[in-house]
Fold:
Amino acid sequence: MTTAAESARTVSRPVSRAVRMRRSPIGRFVWKLPFWILIALIFIYALFPFYWALRSAFTPEAQLFDTPIQYFPHHPTLQNFRDVLSSDFFRRALLNSTIVAGSVTLISLAVGSVAAYALGRFKFRGKSSILYLMLSMTIFPQIAILGALYTMFTGFHVVGPIDFPKLYDTEWALIFSYLIFTIPFTIWVLTGFMRALPADLEEAAYVDGATPLQVFYKVLLPLIAPGLVTTGLLAFIAAWNEYLFAVSFIQSQNHYTVPVAITSFVGKSGNAFQTPWGELMAATVVVTVPLIVATLLLQKRILAGLTAGAVKG
Amino acid sequence: MSSVATPAPAPRRRRRRRTKLQRRQTKLAWLLLLPALAIVALVAIYPLGKTVYQSFTDQQFLAGITPTKWVGLDNYSTIWHDPAWKHAVILTLKFTVITVTFEFVLGLIIALVVNSSFKGRGVMRAVMLVPWAIPTVVAAQMWKWMLDDTFGVVNDFGVRTHVLSHSQAWISNPSTSLGAVCAVDIWKTTPFVALLLLAGLQVIPKDLYEAADVDGASKLQQFWRITLPLLKPAILVTLIFRTLDALRVFDIFAVFFGNRLDTQTMAIYIQSAIVGDGNVGLGAAASVFMFLIIALFVVIYVTFMRVNEE
Structure:
């Protein structure tokens, strides 16, 4: 820091030959070439696996197993997509995942925004310890409570006439257990949004005689609506992608979520020993494209949401 | 100073009024927090306590046939002496070291490249979000197909460019299987690491570099003297999150190897003990071990951060 500050005061030296070379048009091109090659490499590296899934999804099943393999399908087909989307197994999984991830997102946003209101706009003792609790929960290893949840979901006696319901092998088990990572996360991120709002908005509303709850849903909630969308999307993606709990708590096929279905995919042929790669890749494309589109649409906000915690520490 | 007596009651009254308001605020705040805290208690804290308790019992999934007994430290000593657990711990640590190192170095390079202004920077950033948005299980399936021993593109490309003399069975061959899983994780997570570091880079004031340029410092010197020291907070946070994530890896290993014994991570070991064998007590004890290992890493990182701040 100090060296940089001192150096600002020194007078610039005459331009060297290397620098002059770099500034000429040809020199600039040569100088920039490795840079663009690097950019191209990163681009290919990031996108190639997805391209390969697309290419395999559009290639007829028979040609997938031709050698030498084709890098671009000569006879693109939609057959794989048709097969996948007409299979009850996969459609059911899509529906289940939508229900689970959707409910988890809605519950987290409802509970999380109210908690964030308290944590972001109120002063009270114990606030920072709750924030720390939420932060430590976001890095909580879910596997640590797998056994306990597993026995809980098979139903147990709580107290008096109250029994914990048997949730094993139902969507409820997943909705319940996914809250463990979505709730702390939504609270943490939404508290940041709540805090960033200026105080005078609220004060004006209080002067007009609004109650704290009115302030919450009439003044603050509309203002953090963009934050709710982003946080909701991130929670949705986390729930949509979850695999450990889904594979542990769900037994019957018609309750499978998408990740479980993708890993136990048996194609139209019904042959368990021959992975139907064409259909499987069509399924991965179907599952992924909505997420990618949503992510790209909300790109800037997602980046802000994801990186806020990391930069501020 | 002379009229000390008169203004005294006013601030006291005001203070009392403020505390009353404060008390009402506090009550309302806790009320608003109640649903969240109730859920966290029920979903996380209670199960965590239950796991610790179960680790001292011989709890089976199909309890009721024989009543659950308290067995003391039996589960812990069983796991301590289990070569499979030891293997799982070592494999997980190897995976963690490899992936976190590669993701950090590659991520930093990508972040530095994307941080320089050029046409299409926005597109690049969007592209980097694609691997992140793909579900881990799906990414693992994509790579499993790419690494297929006869029809995979990796083998085909390798043989065509003469990098490989013949096709490899990347996943089933024990000497390449770890590398194969690491490749998937590195592909999926490096862009995300890069984005976190990029956010850190953008906070560094530009005039520092201008000043260094004027002073004739080389780009490399600028990197070591300006970029790296100022990026340290972002680096540490990124490393913590990545390490903790890598230590609990489950999805990729499960998709690639199922329950293959020589490729169990800690999480796979625990999951197959609990769900596969129904041996909840043993799995719970392993969970506690894993929890301690993760806690150890957190302590190391946090002390490292503190030492660096002083």
